[in-house]
Amino acid sequence: SMSNNSYLRAKVFETEHGVCQLCNVNAQELFLRLRDAPKSQRKNLLYATWTSKLPLEQLNEMIRNPGEGHFWQVDHIKPVYGGGGQCSLDNLQTLCTVCHKERTARQAKERSQVRRQSLASK
């Protein structure tokens, strides 16, 4: 549920402080810098950082109305489809949006390969 998600996000934030566990960027710090910057300076700020890899529409949204959730996500270390469905804190980690996107794409590929294998073996 959503309320459970924000609780877990807060708990993960207590230990990891919005720092990506894969690439070590401080995503929370960038969020605060951007939020507090004049709108006119936000674009240059974003384009000078790791976020420049993100799609344009996402960057525009971050410039218009930056939210913490644009910068970092809470990720299941052991993916849900791999039996990591339990939302225990030790299965959760902070990922910056770029690492989260890459990991999600990789997992989607793995999932479809697993599905193809199970269909082939029937």
Q: What this model shows, in words?
A:
It contains 5 helices and 2 strands, in the order H-H-H-H-E-E-H. By secondary structure, the protein is mostly helical. It is globular. The model has no long low-confidence stretch (mean pLDDT 90).
Topology of helices and strands:
Layout: H1 2-16, H2 27-36, H3 39-47, H4 56-64, E1 72-76, E2 92-96, H5 97-120
Antiparallel strand pairs: 1-2
Helix pairs in contact: 3-4
Terminal Cα span: 35 Å
Strand order of the largest sheet: 1-2
Number-wise, the strands total 2
Mean pLDDT value:
90
SSE class: mainly alpha
Using brief descriptors, characterize the structure shown.
two-stranded antiparallel sheet; 8% strand; 55% helix; mainly alpha; 122 residues
Short description:
It contains five helices and two strands; from the N terminus they run H-H-H-H-E-E-H. It has 122 residues and is mainly alpha-helical. It has a two-stranded antiparallel ribbon with strand order 1-2.
